[in-house]
Amino acid sequence: MLPQLAPQEQRDLVGLCVERVEVRAKSSVVRPDEDRQIEIRLRLHAAQLVAGMEERVVVRVREARLAPITHRVMTIDSRVNLGSSQRPTRILTPFNEVLAAASATSVTRKEPAIRHLLHLAIAWQRKLENKPDMSHAALARRKKVSEPTVSRTLQMLRLLPEIQAILLQLKQRSDLRRYSLNKMVALAALPPEEQRQGFAKLSL
Questions:
Q1: Of 24, 108, 126, 179, whose CA is between 20 and 30 Å from 52?
Q2: Angle (nearest 5°) at CA 177 between 176 and 181
Q3: pTM, 2 dp
Q4: In DSSP terms, which residues pair with 73 in a beta bridge?
Q5: Among candidates 108, 116, 126, which has minimal Cα distance to 166?
Q6: Helix 181-188 vs helix 147-155: angle between axes, to the nearest 10 degrees?
Q7: How far apart are CA 29 and CA 142, in angstroms?
Q8: Are 42 and 28 in contact (CB under 8 A)?
Q9: Which of 5, 6, 2, 9 is nearest to 56 (CA)?
């Protein structure tokens, strides 16, 4: 009957079959050195299927039926061998089929690179130089930070080149805390010689 139906009617018929399948799992059986097995019984109620087909105009009902529809139930017994995480699940009856489980891929989260905020200050300064009409406020809106944050970060560019070179090489989180933004902004406000002395004290 299925090949004689239109594609949409075929989809409706298959959907009705699935909706009217009654699945009952029997008690599982565990044998030594084997995977757990369960038996599944499928029951398809033919009368409900035909009724549903009529509702969706899948079956063209004759004006007079020769005989009323009797309640028929098709039962299919199936036995399934449930594998472990390393072994696939296998259908044993009524047909033999291996259901290979998708291999679990471990997702490794990449840790963000440890970089001093001076890198950000250099990038922001470069952007401002490339766009002379861009203000600190406009840059702050684009980067979704406050304008004072932009201004304070850029103040680190007043540090001596030798100090900036050291900050750009930092890779440890402890060093980022030692040479934090607040400390470097305060250091940048000092004269060159005092910057050297202050930075040397922080490095001890």
A1: 24
A2: 80
A3: 0.47
A4: 45
A5: 116
A6: 60
A7: 63
A8: no
A9: 9
How many whole angstroms from its chain centre is CA 107? 10
Average pLDDT, the chain: 76
Per domain, the residue ranges of the chain are: 2-99, 117-199
Q: State how far the Cα of 31 lies from the Cα of 196, in Å rounded to an integer.
A: 76
Mean pLDDT of 33-59: 58
Residue-level pLDDT at 63 = 47
Structure tokens at 99: 């259901």
pLDDT at residue 64 tops 50: no
Residue pointed to by tokens 């009902």: 61
Dig out the tokens for 28 from the structure: 């599982």
Assess whether the previous peptide bond of 94 is cis (omega < 30° from 0): yes
Strands (DSSP E) found in the chain: 21-25, 36-45, 73-82, 89-93, 97-99
Q: How many Cα atoms within 13 Å fall on the side-chain side of residue 47? A: 6
Residue 159 has pLDDT above 90, yes or no: yes
More confident residue, 78 or 118: 118
Query: Cα separation of 201 and 204, whole Å?
Result: 5
Q: Residue 13: which H helix or E strand, with range?
A: helix 7-19
